[in-house]
């Protein structure tokens, strides 16, 4: 008797559960994201995806993720994974809402995940060091017998496997503990002969290492896209598709890509001759503005002038795709902080730049306790890469048993912020650490030459490059 009462109760419960279930279908992923107000995205720390820039988090994927979150009206929670396979697994398991990690759409991967519409196209490129080969390699077979290192689980490995069908002797080693930029760095330092990298990575990286050469494209045009879970619930995926459609229609996507891949234009290579021509022709127009701004901020006007030349070549209309403008190339954010209304106004820009430099110098003195001349070089580096990364570099300098208060020591360490082995020990992570080094060195040269010019009156013009970064790659 008791038993049947129990089973009757159970049946009622089951029935109720069934009815409740039937009338309220489970929430879709999109609904859950909107309800919780949070989007969980997995990415990787790289120059083409997500990194800490001078003004805070940056990278094309980072920007796209932010825009998508805005579109949905939610916040973002970003998780960083080092390994490409980990990234895909997170999506497969559903522990992340999606992956935005510069992922190449490949057939193998399509079995595991659902790709969004592409947001960018790349090719895979075989990259070698000009100094390691006597003759330019033209065919993939020219690499047979050479040390090729590629990223494990990458689209590059998939591609090499395909090529191996035609070239059975082709072999390579796979590394788990780095990313493509690090592999490119190894080729530049001749620690390996050849690597494969996406063309967008090569574009960014070659500027620092002109000895790197692209031998050939080893793939056709390939798409980069976001990766979603393949399950039945495609609600978030569909919303992302709408989002990309909107981004393409408004031209915003093209703009974003330009912004991320044209930032090299901020750095220019120039010869002593051009510089001196500008010292004679352009500088007189702005000299009194530099002097006034420098005086008001207790700075050497020649230093302010040198910074401005590095930033804009003394062109008040200078614009870069990264969104910086004017004589001192201020970002919107910096201009706003400084209360500047019009960045393209010469006087306002110079004033703002000088004030900002003063702030940086004071900050470097207060936080690091540095005196001249170090203080100025550190302040300039921070102007370029951001205070957080500079502090990271100082920490690493100490770790390496060198002196974090010496620019010459920190300058050796800054480029390491590009290597995972080092940047993973830091608070702010990846940075294009060689840029502040080149930046500071260039300004020092401009400053020195200006002094020399002003002291001597008539310089002897020698046709030589003045910058420490002697290549024309910038
Ligand atoms: N796009 C490459 C891939 O999806 C990744 C490149 C890299 O990690 O540097 O495999």
Describe the sheet with the most strands.
6 strands, mixed
- Mean pLDDT across the residues is 85
Percent of residues in helices comes to: 40-55%
Total helical elements: 20
Small molecules in complex = glutamic acid
Reported CATH architecture of the largest domain: Orthogonal Bundle
Runs in which pLDDT lies below 50 for 5 or more consecutive residues are 263-270, 457-474
Termini distance? 89 Å
How many domain modules? Answer: 3
Based on CA atoms alone, the radius of gyration comes out at 27 Å
Q: Determine the strand fraction and express it as a percent band.
A: 5-15%
Which helices and strands, and how do they pair?
Blueprint: H1 2-23, H2 29-36, E1 38-43, E2 51-53, E3 56-58, H3 60-72, E4 75-80, H4 84-93, E5 98-104, H5 107-110, E6 114-115, E7 120-122, E8 124-129, E9 148-151, H6 155-166, E10 173-175, H7 180-188, E11 194-198, H8 199-206, E12 212-217, E13 222-228, H9 235-249, H10 252-261, H11 272-281, H12 283-296, H13 301-312, H14 332-337, H15 346-368, H16 374-385, H17 387-399, H18 407-413, H19 420-423, H20 434-456
Parallel strand pairs: 1-4, 1-5, 9-10, 9-11
Antiparallel strand pairs: 2-3, 5-13, 6-13, 7-13, 8-11, 8-12
The structure holds glutamic acid.
């Amino acid at each position: 008797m008791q038993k049947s009462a129990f089973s009757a109760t159970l049946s009622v419960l089951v029935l109720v559960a069934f009815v409740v279930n039937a009338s309220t279908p489970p929430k879709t992923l999109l609904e859950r994201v909107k309800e919780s107000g949070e989007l969980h995205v997995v990415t990787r720390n790289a120059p083409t995806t997500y990194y800490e820039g001078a003004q805070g988090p940056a990278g094309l994927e980072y920007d796209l993720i932010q825009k998508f979150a805005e579109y949905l009206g939610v916040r973002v929670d970003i998780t960083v994974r080092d390994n490409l396979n980990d990234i895909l697994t997170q999506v497969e398991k559903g522990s992340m809402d999606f992956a935005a990690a510069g992922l190449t759409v490949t057939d193998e991967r399509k079995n595991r995940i659902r790709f969004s519409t592409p947001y960018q196209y790349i090719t895979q490129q075989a990259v070698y060091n000009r100094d390691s080969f006597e003759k330019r390699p033209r065919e993939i077979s020219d690499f047979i017998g050479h040390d090729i290192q590629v990223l494990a689980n990458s689209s590059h490995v998939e591609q090499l496997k395909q090529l191996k069908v035609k070239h059975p002797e082709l072999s390579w080693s796979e590394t788990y503990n780095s990313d493509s930029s690090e592999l490119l760095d190894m080729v530049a330092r001749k620690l390996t002969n050849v690597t494969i990298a996406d063309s967008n990575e090569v574009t960014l990286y070659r500027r620092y290492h002109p000895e790197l050469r692209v031998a050939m494209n080893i793939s056709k045009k390939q798409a980069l896209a976001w990766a979603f879970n393949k399950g039945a619930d495609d609600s978030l995926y569909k919303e992302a598709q709408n989002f990309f459609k909107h981004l393409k229609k408004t031209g915003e996507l093209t703009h974003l890509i330009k912004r991320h891949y044209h930032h090299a234009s901020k750095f220019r290579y120039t010869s002593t001759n051009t510089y001196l021509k500008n010292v004679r022709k352009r500088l007189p127009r702005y000299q009194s503005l530099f002097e006034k701004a420098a005086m008001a901020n207790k700075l050497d006007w020649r230093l302010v002038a040198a910074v401005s030349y590095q930033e804009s070549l003394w062109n008040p209309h200078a614009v870069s795709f990264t969104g910086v403008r004017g004589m001192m190339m201020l970002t919107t954010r910096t201009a706003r902080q400084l209360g500047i209304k019009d960045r393209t106004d010469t006087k306002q820009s110079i004033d703002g730049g000088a004030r900002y430099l003063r702030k940086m110098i004071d900050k470097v003195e207060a936080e690091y306790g540095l005196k001249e001349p170090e203080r100025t070089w550190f302040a300039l580096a921070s102007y370029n890469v951001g205070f957080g990364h500079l502090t990271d570099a100082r920490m690493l300098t100490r770790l390496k048993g060198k002196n974090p208060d010496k620019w010459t020591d920190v300058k050796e360490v800054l480029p390491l912020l590009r290597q995972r082995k080092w940047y993973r020990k830091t608070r702010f992570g990846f940075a294009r650490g060689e840029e502040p080094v080149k930046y500071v060195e260039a300004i020092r040269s401009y400053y020195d030459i200006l002094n020399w010019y002003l002291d001597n009156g008539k310089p002897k013009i020698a046709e030589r490059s003045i910058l420490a970064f002697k290549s024309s790659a910038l």
